[in-house]
Amino acid sequence: MLHRILRGLLPPLLMGALCPALAADEIVWGKYNVPPYMIPTGEAAHQGIFDQTLDVLKSKMPQYRHVELNAPFPRINSEIKKGNHWCFNGGLKTPEREAYGYFSLPISIFLPLRIIVRRDRLAEFKGQQSLQTLLRTHAFSTSVMRDRSYSPTVDKLLAAYPPKENYSEQVEAIGMLLAGRIDYMIELPLLAFDQARAMGRPGELVALPMQEANEVVFNRVMCPRNEWGRQVVEQVNRVLLANRESPSYRRIVEKWHDPESVAEIRRIYDKVFLKTP
Fold it and tell me: What H or E segment, with its residue span, contains residue 160?
């Protein structure tokens, strides 16, 4: 009760300075609208992959107060950079991010990214596509999420040939693609197809493999690179080590995927996912 009263009366920084013991045990979990990983509303609300892996962490870490706060990913990333008591469940570990954040063991799996185009424009994208050529020639337009890491290979290509357009949430970009305001996206098929379906446009998008990248990457919990963040990640890792081998956790990671994707997840789960530090 005292904590709630103080939060209402004092600015966050002042409260942290005056009451470190109270401020230290609350985690703000940044979330945004990215079905089927995070689902904030609708019939399947809170049934996303990241929603449910976060539920596992929250249930096993009662020593913290857990607050879920919806915000665009650039805001979430900024709060972590500032060292505030925010964490994100679903980040990719990169050397740049390790400069300001601690990362947990892997929590779930992203299957390979694809080039997403409208089905009625498929003839314009013949054969396996080179992302480098698409980015370099500017024959087709795209947009990328601010502050997002896609995969090691894709990140390098985007740094070398940065697109002119940026967005903050995937639903914004899917809408641009469906409306013809951009020509293609770099995205996970599971995410792109689900967003299109939710917008009443099922079956209108197709996924094309790219020449340069066929990487499977792992999501992690990301917290600020300070003592508070280190302790949170240490606790998260304990929970993951105790739970990731369970059938219930495996079902969360597989959720929403088609049978072919589930088979791919199962091929790498024990041999790669559980063994990746």
Answer: helix 152-160
pLDDT classification of 152: cutoffs 50, 70, 90: very high
Q: What is the mean pLDDT of residues 66-93?
A: 97
With the CA atoms of 64, 69, 74 and 78 taken in that order, what torsion angle do they form, in degrees rounded to the nearest 10?
A: -40
Round to whole Å and give the CA distance between 173 and 141. Answer: 12
What is the C-alpha radius of gyration for the chain, rounded to an integer number of angstroms?
20
Edge-to-edge order in the sheet of strand 185-187: 185-187, 114-118, 205-208
Instruction: Return the pLDDT at 169.
Output: 86
DSSP 43-63: TTTT-SHHHHHHHHHHHH-TT
Provide the 3-class DSSP secondary structure of residue 157. helix
What is the distance between the alpha carbons of residues 226 and 223, in angstroms, rounded to a whole number? 8
Three-class DSSP category at 129? strand
Q: What is the pTM of this model?
A: 0.82
Residue 117: C-alpha distances to residues 69, 82, 178, 197, 203 (Å): 32, 37, 9, 15, 11
Instruction: For residues 193 and 201, give the distance between their C-alpha atoms in angstroms, rounded to a whole number.
Output: 9
Structure confidence by residue, pLDDT tens digits, 8-31: 444 444 444 444 444 459 999 999
Cα four-point dihedral sign 18, 22, 27, 30: negative
| Residue 242 Cα distances to 16, 60, 108, 235, 245, angstroms | 32, 10, 15, 11, 7
Query: Would you state the pLDDT for residue 1?
Result: 39
Which of 98-107, 151-160, 182-191, 205-214 is least confident? 205-214
